[in-house]
Every structure is written in structure tokens, then in C-alpha cells.
Amino acid sequence: MSRNQRWDFVRNKNLCYCCLEEHTVRSCRSKRDALLHSYQATEEAGNATTGSRRPPAVLFHGGESSKALFRYIKVQLYGRNCYINTFALVDEGAACTLIEKDLADELGLDGPEKELCLRWTGEISQTEPASKLVNLQISAANQGATRYDLKGVRTVAHLDLPIQSLGEKLIKSRSDLKSIPMPTYRNAKARLIIGLDNIKTRENAIVGVPLEGRELEGDDFVAVRCRLGWSAYGRQCSGEASRPRILHVCECNNGDRLHDLDEAMRNHFALESLGVTVANKPLRSKEDERAACIMEAKTTFDPEAKRWQTGLLWRYDKMILPNSYPMALGRLRCLEAKMAKDPALSQFLMESMKSYQEKGYTRQLVREEIVSNSNSWYLPIFTVTNPNKKKTRMVWDAAAEVNGLSLNHALLKGPDILVSLMGVLIRFR
Question: Do 185 and 322 lie in a common domain?
């Protein structure tokens, strides 16, 4: 029947528009029956309201299923000065062990705070900014049971685990559970999740792994025993229905988050550097090119002396230098006069020259090597004392001039092959 035909039928039979019973509409508190709705009108109204936006998709697992029980175990948790009986969920799909913050406070547990990111299936994540790293002990619920250490347990505000019950009626109805001391509970809610990091304790004791089990053929319900006691989990065949639930807990790795940040920065730099290329050969002046050629041609390594040596960076191939001997001789006499007045200065210069000769930096020329020509230059020396460090050093004065010309004027500075500090600061992000 079409919508109009259904409306005609209701009017002719004098039925209620809400519940389709024979009474007046005013006395009925039910909503209008869905059979009288206009789906086309509803869709058109929705499209007119939202415009061209696509409605959000809602995922729902429908249908009835047998009731599922998670692996709850009744345990005792030990803090500093007290112990508390509660329930724990053994979850081999969880990467870390979690405890509710209120329970940790009741036990008097404390530890350093560290942000925790929890991720479930479907990339659903939750951040716990005030999570603490605590240590505690756990044992079976009975008195005098062996205690086991749980290390690196993380606190969370709320676990919100499902409430479930395991009654005597179910245990007595199953032959596999009658002969074992299976504890019963009603409306229990776990406040602790034991993950993979504490499945095996530091004492090499396997806490949550089953040591033995009981089951029936053709059934999805099992009972297992671990060091914390017996527990039953699976799907019951009692006919009770519950909404399916998927539970998975894992801890995000901070390295992955840093990797994502690193990838984002790399992508940003890649976009920012589009069309920007670095020259393979930096631009140089003619003087720097000449100096570079001289260094490449005359720089050699002396294997016997185990040192490098290079030639002077002459500004031109043929240099005509003035006679610098009189200038150097006058400077030497002035220095000798200072040495005569200052014995400490005299001793410093004598020891410095002797050290240079021992290291092979300088040598005394023989008479045949003393030739004065246009390429000869005599370097005067002087001393400088740093008042802050109170240290004296000897200086070879290449800036001494003769007729307005010095050795520095005849030599090239050479290219700057160091990394530019200004460039480093500009490129720093």
C-alpha cells in the first residue's frame, strides 16, 4: 500500500494516528506510527536543510547475539599501606597495563606524570595528559596468596569497562564448571587492565597466561586458570542478548609522533624550496680565483716532516718590492734596546725563536742564501701583551711599509672557504 492508501485506511476505520488502535488521538501519548511517515518528504526536507553537504555516516552493528563475557578475575591490589579487592581484565590485545586514577589514589600510589595516548580500532584515540607511571602488587583474591609485581602501570581517568555478572545458575548448568572453584560475581566492573607488558612479571612468573582450561564441544564459553585464579569468558548460550563490543587498548609510541612531525616538516621544507637551487660552484672574484689556483697548484704534503706546505699568494706573477732591509734593521735595533731594559722580554723572545727552530718553522740562512733582490722582503717582529690574559705573543709584522708598500699589499687574501655565519642564521628555522 502506498502512503495515501494507508492514510485512507486509517481514516475509514477511525484508528489512532499514533498507535493504530481504536481510540482518540488526544488520549494517546505514542508517537506517530512510522508506516504513516513520508520518507520522500523527510529526505527532501533534510536535503533542503543541509544543502549539498553529505550526511554523516553512522556505523551500527545491528541484530541480536548471545551475551559476551570478558575475562574478569577477582584480585587483590596492594598499595603502600592498604589493599583493595577489585576485578581485573586480562587483555592480551592491550599493549600496556592501565588502572583507574581513583583506584590508584585509594591505594596511595604515586609516580611521575607523563602524557599517554590510547588508540583503539578505527584510529580512535584518547589522550590522558595527567597519566602517572606507578608500580603496585597483585595477587589472587584469597588471603595469603602469592603477590606479583606490576611495573609501569599507567593511570587513566576512566576505563568505562562493561558491567557483567557470573551467577551460580550458569555454573551449575555446565558440567565443565561444576568441579572447579569458579568464583561468582554480580554487576562487576573491572578497574584494572592487565596488558602485554605485565603478562610476565620480573620474577619470570606468568601472571595472566592460562595454565589449564575447561570447555565443552560446540560451545564458545571457556574457563581457564592462571596464577591469579579461575575466570570464565566467551559467549553464553543462555539466549540473553547484548550489543557487540570491541575492546582494544594500546599505547601510542612517542617515536611515531615525532616521526609524523618530522615528515610534516620535511614536506613543508620541500614545498618552500621549490625552484630554489644551490650553485655547485660559488661565485668568486678574479683575485679569489687566482688565489685558489695558486693554493691548488702549490699545496703539497711533506711525508718526512708530516706537514703541509703551500706557496705565497702573490698578487701578480712578477712583483717588484722595495728594499726593506734598512727598515727591518731599524726595527731590530729598537727591539734590542727594549730587550736590554726588560730581561723577561728578552728571555721570552729567545725562547720563542728557539722553539720555532726546533719545530722547523724557521731556520738560520747560510751566507750563500742571503741574496737581496726585488722579491726579497725582511719581516720585522714585535711583541703584544694581552692585559686580560696577561699573555705575551710574538707578531711577524707583515703590515710594515716601505715607500707606502707592505708585504700584505703584495699578497692576496684568498677566498673565504668557511661557512658563512650570516647564511647559517638566515637558513636557520
Answer: no
**CA gap 164, 75 in Å, rounded:** 16
- Residue at grid coordinates 565443565: 176
Residue 159 to residue 134: CA distance in whole angstroms: 16
Q: What is the pLDDT of residue 380?
A: 93
Whether this prediction's pTM lies above 0.70 is answered by no
The alpha-helical segments, DSSP class H, found in 233-311 are: 254-272, 286-298
What is the domain extent for residue 14?
3-41
- Output the nine-digit C-alpha cell for 75: 584480585
Cell representation of residue 40: 520522500
For 56-80, how does the pLDDT look when each residue is reduced to its tens digit (9 = 90+)?
A: 333 333 344 457 788 899 998 998 8
Residue 182 lies in a domain: yes
Q: Which three cell numbers stand for residue 27?
A: 488520549
Rounded CA gap, 7 and 33, in Å? Answer: 11
> Which residues are within 8 A (CB) of 396 and not within 5 positions of it... i.e. 6 or more apart?
379, 381
Please state the domain count of the chain: 3
Taking Cα atoms as reference points, which of 39, 72, 283 lies closest to residue 159? 72
- The residues, any chain, with a CB within 8 Å of residue 126's CB and separated by 6 or more, are 117, 118, 119, 120
- 195-217 pLDDT, tens digit per residue, is 888 877 656 667 778 888 888 87
**Percentage with pLDDT > 70 across the chain:** 78
**Helix runs in 68-156, H state only:** 101-106
Residue with cell 481504536: 22
36 and 136, same domain (yes or no): no
Helix (H, G, I), strand (E, B) or coil at 162: coil
The domain that contains 80 carries what CATH number?
2.40.70
Query: What are the C-alpha distances in Å from 229 to residues 90, 168, 213?
Result: 12, 17, 12
Q: Is 322 exposed, middle or buried (0-12, 13-18, 19+ CB in 10 A)?
A: middle
Do 298 and 397 contact (CB within 8 A), yes or no?
A: no
Residues of the chain with pLDDT under 50: 39-65, 238-241, 245-253
What confidence score (pLDDT) does residue 401 get? 92
- Render pLDDT for 20-49 as a digit per residue (tens, 0 to 9): 676 665 556 565 555 565 544 444 444 444
Residue at 357 is within a domain = yes
Return the bridge partners of 67, or none. Answer: none
